[in-house]
Automatic annotation (TrEMBL):
Any Pfam family matching the protein: Rhodanese
SUPFAM superfamilies attached to this UniProt entry: Rhodanese/Cell cycle control phosphatase
PANTHER family from the UniProt entry: THIOSULFATE SULFURTRANSFERASE
Database matches in InterPro entries: Rhodanese-like_dom, Rhodanese-like_dom_sf, Thiosulfate_sulfurtransferase
Entry annotated with the keyword Nucleotide-binding: no
The keyword Mitochondrion appears for this protein: no
Organism per entry: Leptospira ainlahdjerensis
Name of the protein described by the UniProt record: Sulfurtransferase
């Protein structure tokens, strides 16, 4: 009985220890996530077909689209809070349970970061991106299956954190504010003016820095070390005191970068509307350049 009691105590201490050490972390190593797995909800952002072939036991499949406005030019923006609350609760999201979000980092578009950013913005402080994605957890022995999804309901209290999101108005008001840096996380071709995803106009926000989001990943899909990330941000001339507003096409890749930078202690915000919204505005009020 004493051994059983000690074992149960360890199971309870591990999550507390992880949260104690990682209270401001947005990203967990596969080992940290594996330790939390028995008491966590796993949201899987891989393709639906891959998910149904194999997934972590008890996990739920999600896509960023179902939480976002469906039509252009506002497609990147989140749905109203009351709709988000019902949708997320239907997936089992609960304020009192950690949420681990997984993906295929090299093949996806940063959807895991988008879900983590969304949950953090809505006030869920224990939502985490799992470094290395689904494979990282599976390789550490996380139980997998191809069985159906559970139907557990959650209870979510939404308390939005305005510090995590940027609006077009905020960007317009701070285009020349040196405390702000606008970080374009798209491919270089997009930064230079190509419009492959239905943008109304091409180019980038004047003065924006360019950092393709996948440049923060190793070849194996794991995220760069803190030192490597810091060096890349420093090379762009961005300091710790800077307010970083990340954007892409619809706030997906930029949400992933926001998650990574927040995990490193930077003051980063995601512009969810991103280029779909910005490029739909007039050139005078919503300027773009390809230079």
């Amino acid at each position: 009985m004493k051994l059983q009691s000690a074992f149960l105590t360890i199971l309870l201490i591990i999550p507390s220890f992880v949260f104690g050490q990682k209270s401001e972390s947005w990203i967990l190593t596969p080992g940290e996530a594996r330790a939390l797995l028995p008491n966590s909800l796993v949201l899987d952002t891989r393709s639906r077909s891959i998910f149904y072939r194999e997934h972590i036991n008890g996990s739920r499949w999600v896509s960023w689209e179902e939480f976002s406005v469906p039509n252009l030019p506002f497609r990147g923006n989140l749905l109203p809070f009351e709709i988000l609350k019902k949708k997320l609760e239907s997936y089992g999201v609960d304020n009192n349970q950690p949420v681990l979000v997984v993906s295929e980092p090299k093949n996806n578009w940063g959807e895991d970061g988008r879900i983590v950013w969304m949950l953090r913005y809505l006030g869920h402080r224990s939502a985490f991106l799992v470094d290395g994605g689904y494979a990282g957890l599976k390789n550490l022995g996380a139980p997998v299956s191809n069985q159906g999804e559970p139907k557990n309901k959650g209870s979510l209290s939404i308390k939005p954190d305005a510090k995590l999101t940027a609006t077009s108005s905020e960007i317009k008001s701070n285009l020349k504010n040196r405390k702000y840096v606008f970080l374009d996380t798209r491919e270089e071709r997009e930064f230079l003016g190509e419009t492959p995803y239905g943008e109304s106009r091409g180019g980038h926000i004047p003065g924006a820095k360019h950092l393709y989001y996948k440049n923060l990943l190793h070849e194996n899909g794991s995220i760069l070390s803190s030192e490597e990330i810091s060096e890349k941000i420093k090379e762009l001339g961005i300091g710790r005191e800077t307010i970083i507003v990340a954007y892409c096409t619809g706030g997906i890749r930029s949400a992933w970068v926001t998650t990574v930078l927040r995990n490193e202690g930077y003051t980063a915000k995601n512009y969810a509307g991103s280029m779909w919204e910005w490029s739909a505005g007039n050139e005078k009020d919503f300027p773009l350049t390809a230079k």
